[in-house]
Amino acid sequence: MTRDAFMRELEYLLQDVQDDEKEEALQYYRDYFDEAGPENEEQVIREFGSPERVAAIIRSDLAGNLEEGGAFTESGYTDERFRDPGYQVAHRYDLPESAGGKAAGQTGESGESGKKAEPRTSRLLKIVLVLVLLALALPVAWGIGQGLWGLAGCILALLIVLLVFLGLVTVGFLIAGVIMIPWGIVMAFASPWSGLVVFGSGLALAGLGLLGLALSVLFYGRFVPFVIRGIADCLNRFFHKNRRDEV
């Protein structure tokens, strides 16, 4: 392995280290290579060991785990714990951008916490949007509800007026007809023409009264319940729709 290959590999293994700390560590080993000279590159590389070993030493130094033992020597940092060739802390699959089968289990807690924070942020945004929509929709829904209640009140008041008016007119025609028919018969003996006019008017009023009575039965028994059911259905659909939208 050449110096350039060694440094490229070491830089690759330290990708997840902060830039300033990584650059400081890399510069230390570049300076060491420069002081040793090109003719001693192979010897220096043998003394350093593999790039993974050096990356493990740098990571332990940054994590504060080098106080337990070891010291810097002419060949760099020497620690008995890293002399074992099998001690390779920093492999390629330790890097967050790797896509190996062990990457998911070996990545740092920061990567996992970042992935977990994303759904929480999404849920928070959804809750905020729902609250904003509710705040905007409540005045509109309140205005529509007030308008519907006002319309229902106007229709109900109109129905009451029609009920009273139709009832009074029907009763008045019936009473007038009942009074004028016998009165016309009595007047016919004294003045036949006047008696016939009064008698005919009484019959007409009685007929109108009976017609009004029939219309009242239809109005009170059919139309009024139909209107009340229609208003109740409209209000029921409106409030049920609002509940479904809120859910």
UniProtKB/TrEMBL annotation:
It comes from the Bacteria. The keyword Repressor does not apply. Keywords: Membrane, Transmembrane, Transmembrane helix. The keyword Methyltransferase does not apply. It holds the Pfam family HAAS. The chain crosses the membrane at residues 124-142, 148-166, 173-190, 196-220. Residues 97-117 are annotated as: Disordered. This is DUF1700 domain-containing protein.
